[in-house]
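Tokens for chain A. Residues wanted.
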């Protein structure tokens, strides 16, 4: 038979109901608050115990113009090609700069003092000195200063344990192996000279331990680079902000200052090197130009003597001045070309721009040469010779001036970098940011708690209303609220089982608290059963459920008590021969029950017991047999049920879970009416549906359902409502 789900405004159990989720959060508010509070406490503890990190910062400026007057610098200026800020940033981060800082500050030597577990650093920061119970830990006022540590390659990165001794002595270990002993201030050798160690200072009590490691230079550089950062302020400002993080603010300030000085020094050396190269080049050109000048002057004098002092007219003088200017500029470009050719290839933009400028000047000179060809021969000769003299003379003078400028520049090179703000450590730690960290971790805790509650409610969504069972085609005969009195009775019974000295007369809720809302709900079930069993083939009622621990026995016993109080004779048969516990409600033993009857070890009259409730009898499960299902399939079980039906008005059979074993399907064939119990919030609708289908596949029809242990929760109030009310008799 195919069951159709009812439709309506109420969400199905596969949908996400925001109202229900809100109710789930309200139901679990104490759990959420507890988890959030635990995270908040953990955050406070964390920020108190975490090692504070300090930041040192400095400000440097890289000027666009270097102040270096040489041909290469002039060409760069002409083309607008100045050193890029990105290049300077990479220089600051380079191993060239950071490696020198590692060497100067000996950052490749790491010294770690042994601390008291968990809170040692915190106590030392609070200035706590060595207590009497501590031996190997290092406390406030105790320190180790390693003056020198040289190791062979195989010892790089390996931890050495230094233990302070008496009167300035110490012992050096690798793991638990003693490498030797030494004294403060002396250079000691260990492991056949593979380790050379000089301890400059050791201020610690005997037994205090330090871990000393000589890291590789590359590892120290990478570690420093991870704590060092530099960025440009603004766009193309040339002002760089350098920061360095460290646990020790003085070390951070000192190391950052060293990095700034190294960067400044290498910049000055780089500028000075350029001046030196230009000076060498110019000095190489001086002898050649001087020789060319002497040769040109001798030729001009000889020509004048031969032609008796030929003078230039005004037009020729004008042409000569222009030719001299062009040739002088071409000579300068030839020197620049010679210097650029040593640095760049012909495809470089600097070299190409210089060649284009030279070609333009040569074209201008070609046009002047055409004008010169129109002059008289004597004027042409004197013009050419005068041009050679004047051009060579100007080039020679310029060379001497350049040499003088380069010499001054080399002697006074300051580079294009200056330190605006010296390195300084900020007074307070930058990590952990205590308020922010506490707030963030607390929020994370609250979020995780909320997520856990929501995910759990979605994944473990049990039945929460009778409507959900009716959607499965199962009529709900009763919704039984969770009883606080019943829980108290259960606890009393359990205590009684542990302490045999005190006795509980009866653990039946209907007998002890007849006004309880759960008992009232069972009275309503009694009325519904009266009409439901009118068409039944017998007076047997099977109470079953899909899983254990859903309250089947509670329903069976208390329903039987309520019906018995109405004047009928009722017997409750505990057919769960594996784990049945109907007998516990009556403070009795399980032995001598159903299993003994089915095994022909006892008669029916021997196992029927009278309960403290008038009209209510019960049959315990008996001793657990090895083959319960086979016993239930025997004819003895059918004969037992027939005998009980004759003696009593109603036979209530409490069965094992449907989805656990097949006993319920066997029993259902012998009972005219079957009811399915589902526990609120525990059994998902799908599980109930599977249990019903399993019984139906065995030929057992489930007459209706009982929703047990309903709790008053915000989730159900928002989603489905809650309809049970206490209505007790007034004492006035």
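Reply:
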């Amino acid at each position: 038979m195919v069951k159709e789900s009812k439709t309506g405004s109420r969400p199905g159990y596969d949908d996400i109901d925001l109202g229900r989720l809100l109710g789930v959060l309200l139901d679990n508010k104490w759990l959420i608050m507890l988890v959030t509070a635990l995270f908040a406490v953990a955050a406070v503890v964390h920020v108190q115990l975490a090692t504070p990190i300090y930041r040192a910062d400095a400000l440097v400026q890289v000027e666009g113009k270097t102040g270096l007057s040489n041909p290469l610098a002039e060409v760069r200026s002409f083309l607008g090609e100045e050193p890029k800020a990105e290049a300077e940033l990479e220089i600051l981060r380079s191993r060239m700069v950071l490696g020198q800082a590692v060497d100067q500050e000996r950052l490749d030597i790491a010294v770690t003092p042994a601390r008291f577990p968990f809170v040692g650093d915190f106590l030392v920061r609070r200035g706590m000195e060595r207590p009497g119970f501590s031996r190997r830990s290092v406390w406030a006022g105790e320190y180790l200063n390693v003056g020198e540590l040289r190791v062979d390659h195989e010892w790089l990165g390996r931890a050495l344990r230094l233990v302070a001794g008496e009167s300035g002595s110490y012992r050096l270990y690798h793991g638990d192996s003693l490498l030797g002993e030494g004294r403060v201030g002396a250079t000691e050798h260990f492991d056949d000279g593979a380790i050379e160690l000089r301890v400059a200072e050791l201020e610690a009590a005997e037994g205090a331990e330090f871990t000393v490691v000589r890291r590789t230079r590359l590892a120290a550089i990478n570690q420093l680079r991870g704590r060092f950062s530099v960025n440009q302020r603004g766009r193309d400002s040339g002002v760089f902000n350098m920061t360095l993080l460290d646990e020790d603010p003085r070390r951070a300030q000192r190391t950052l200052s060293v990095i700034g000085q190294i960067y400044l020094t290498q910049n000055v050396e780089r500028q000075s090197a350029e001046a030196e190269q230009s000076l060498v080049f110019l000095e190489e050109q001086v002898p050649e130009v001087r020789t060319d000048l002497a040769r040109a002057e001798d030729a001009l004098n000889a020509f004048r003597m031969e032609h008796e002092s030929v003078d230039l007219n005004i037009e020729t003088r004008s042409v000569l001045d222009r030719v001299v200017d062009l040739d002088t500029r071409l000579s300068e470009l030839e020197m620049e070309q010679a210097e650029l050719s040593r640095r760049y290839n012909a495809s470089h933009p600097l070299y190409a721009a210089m060649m284009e400028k030279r070609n333009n000047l040569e074209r201008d000179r070609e046009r002047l040469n055409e004008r010169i060809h129109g002059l008289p021969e004597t004027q042409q000769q004197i013009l050419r010779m005068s041009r050679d003299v004047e051009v060579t003379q100007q080039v020679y003078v310029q060379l001497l001036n350049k040499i003088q400028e380069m010499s001054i520049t080399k002697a006074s090179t300051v580079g294009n970098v200056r330190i605006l703000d010296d390195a300084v450590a900020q007074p307070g730690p930058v990590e952990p940011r205590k308020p922010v960290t506490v707030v963030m971790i607390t929020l994370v805790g609250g979020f995780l708690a909320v997520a856990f509650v929501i995910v759990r409610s979605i994944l473990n969504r049990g039945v929460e209303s009778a409507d959900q069972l009716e959607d499965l085609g199962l009529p709900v005969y009763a919704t039984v609220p969770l009883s606080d009195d019943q829980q108290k009775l259960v606890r009393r019974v359990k205590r009684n089982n542990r302490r045999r000295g005190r006795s509980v007369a009866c653990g039946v809720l209907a007998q002890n608290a007849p006004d309880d809302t759960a008992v009232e709900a069972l009275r309503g079930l009694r009325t519904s059963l009266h009409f439901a069993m009118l068409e039944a083939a017998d007076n047997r009622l099977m109470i079953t459920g899909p899983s254990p621990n859903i309250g089947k026995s509670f329903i069976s016993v208390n329903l039987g008590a309520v019906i018995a109080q109405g004047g009928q004779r009722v017997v409750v048969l505990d057919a769960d021969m594996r784990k049945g516990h109907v007998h516990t409600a009556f403070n009795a033993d399980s032995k001598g029950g159903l299993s003994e009857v089915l095994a022909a070890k006892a008669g029916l009259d021997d196992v029927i017991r009278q309960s403290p409730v008038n009209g209510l009898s019960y049959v315990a499960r008996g001793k657990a047999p090895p083959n319960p299902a086979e016993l239930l399939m025997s004819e003895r079980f059918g004969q037992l049920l027939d005998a009980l039906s004759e003696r009593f008005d109603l036979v209530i059979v409490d069965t094992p879970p449907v989805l656990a074993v097949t006993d319920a399907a066997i029993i259902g064939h012998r009972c005219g009416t079957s009811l399915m119990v589902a526990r609120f919030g525990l059994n998902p609708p799908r599980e109930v549906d599977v249990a019903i289908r399993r019984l139906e596949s065995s030929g057992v029809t489930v007459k209706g359902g009982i929703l047990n242990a309903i709790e008053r929760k915000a989730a159900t109030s928002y989603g489905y409502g809650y309809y049970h009310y206490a209505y007790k008799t007034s004492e006035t």
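The first helix runs from residue 18 to 27. The mean pLDDT is 83.
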